Amino acid sequence: MQPCNACRELVGKPSSVSPHGDLAASGVSAIGPSGHTTKISSNWNCTVCGSWLYQNTADGTPPGEWVMGEHQRASPGKA
Ligand SMILES: [Zn+2]
């Protein structure tokens, strides 16, 4: 599946850039022990092309940048 233009344009942009209009919020990813987790990204699913985009925090990899992934890395139970 090909990412749509809006998704492709977002990848590599600073996380301060807002998600495009066809991205649906789908939880967050965090690392660390329970109760002391560090948020590493907000997760978004494109309703047009189905791509997963991750809006990384300063603790993400790479920090503070939009990246694209194949599927959601965390947050079980969400269909
Ligand atoms: Zn898309």
Structural summary, described in words:
Strands 1-2-3-4 form a 4-stranded antiparallel β-sheet. It has one domain. The protein contains 1 helix and 4 strands; from the N terminus they run αββββ. The protein is globular. About 10% of the residues lie in helices and about 35% in strands. Zinc ion binds next to α1.
Task: Characterize the biggest β-sheet.
Answer: 4 strands, antiparallel
Order of helices and strands: HEEEE
What is the β-strand count?
A: 4
The mean pLDDT is 90
Instruction: Please report the number of helical segments.
Output: 1
List ligands, each type once.
zinc ion
The figure for the number of domains is 1
Low-confidence stretches: 75-79
* Rg over CA atoms: 12 Å
Subunit arrangement of the protein: single chain
Percentage of β-strand residues: 25-35%
Record the strand order, biggest sheet.
1-2-3-4
Q: Quote the distance from N terminus to C terminus.
A: 19 Å
Percent of residues in helices comes to under 10%
State the shape.
globular
- Class from helix and strand fractions: mainly beta
Which key features would you list for this structure?
single chain, 79 residues, mainly beta, 4-stranded antiparallel beta sheet, globular, disordered C terminus, binds zinc ion
